[in-house]
Amino acid sequence: HQNIGYDVGTLAQDGVKFVRTFARPITDSTAHIYTSALIWVPTRSRIQEVYSVRYPRTAHRVLGGETSWPALNLTIHGHTGEVKCVAFLSGGTRIVSGSTDKTVRIWDAETGHDIGNPLVINEDSVNCIAISSDGTRVASGSNHMVRIWNAETGHAIGEPVVAHEHFVHSVAISSDGTRVVSGSWDKTVRIWDAQTGHLIGEPLVGHEDGLTSVAISSDGTRVVSNSPKMVRVWDINTRNVVGRPLVGLAISATCLALSADGTWVILGLGNKTLRIWDARTGHTVGKPMVGHEDLITCLAFSSNGTRAVSGSYDMTVRLWDTRTGQAIGKPFVGHQHGISSVAISSDGTRVVSGSADNTVRTWDVETGHTDVQAVARPEDWINCLALSSDGTRTLLTSGSWDKTVRI
């Protein structure tokens, strides 16, 4: 403790970033801790200060690298089509993704390795997924179908049924895992029994246009749905609209998210801004949140509602303070196409994003808003992670993002 000059807790936090950044090569070969990873540790990191002097005979970095930890943890390859939806599972240790390649896949969030076999959706593209809070159920929506899966076995629950008359754009699961809600371009919201896969009651009807998003409150009593010009809040038991619908929006709503306590709704609007609404009163909260340079495509709240994350066609992911309406740090940059889906881990430390570039990426929230340089220039850092498992590939790589090996 006295020798290193700062508390063990600080060093441990740096150690977590070290493991997350270099998990893939380390799992291939433990020797990479010393022969590769330690060489490319950021120069201002605690790990570098403490351990580089203890291993003076390793290779020395002459060119490249970063001074601080990067925001990007992993780039996960495996899908052969656009990644349309992503979510965290098991408290952030696993990631679930759905794609136009007709599969749902589960990944280790630390190493990027796939877990088990893909869940194959024979019907069509996977447009949306949702995870129950206990991690036992996965719901997926494809072009006309809603499927419910046992996340532990990978087996479908119930027989596949035609859920809607048009594309299913969004699904959500109640926190107790008993109900699934789906929204479709057929202008309806439908509720399903997550244990049997059967439809419960009649569809919720009232939107004048196709639905783009649905969400359910943590207590399972409220459902929020949006179409381009209207947002409705529903009582899931009575199936009645709660309060007055948010109608006549001057600007089309492209996506929404509901806070865990069901009090706030955040909307992505067609003018590239975000707005927060009080779901109980129907009034806006604060000022528009500005920063994206193209259409906002996806949103998510943190578990405590103090932060929100957004993805856009501008190929960036942004983090927001919902209390002030201000962006937190610089945008997460690295995807090569528009962002399709975003999520925040339950502990609020990591963001996951899916994109039309067929990749899933994870981002360190703390690093992302404290280290501007690492976020602004991810391509330099990613070059440093082009390490072969046997250590034979040169460490001093150069070139563009598209010519690197990424983890």
TrEMBL record:
WD repeats mapped onto the chain: 76-117, 161-202, 204-244, 246-287, 289-330, 332-373
SUPFAM superfamilies: Quinoprotein alcohol dehydrogenase-like (SSF50998)
Gene3D superfamilies found in the cross-reference section: YVTN repeat-like/Quinoprotein amine dehydrogenase (2.130.10.10)
Protein name stated in the entry: WD40 repeat-like protein
UniProt keyword list: Repeat, WD repeat
PROSITE patterns: WD_REPEATS_1 (PS00678), WD_REPEATS_2 (PS50082), WD_REPEATS_REGION (PS50294)
Keyword Repeat among UniProt keywords: yes
Top-rank taxon: Eukaryota
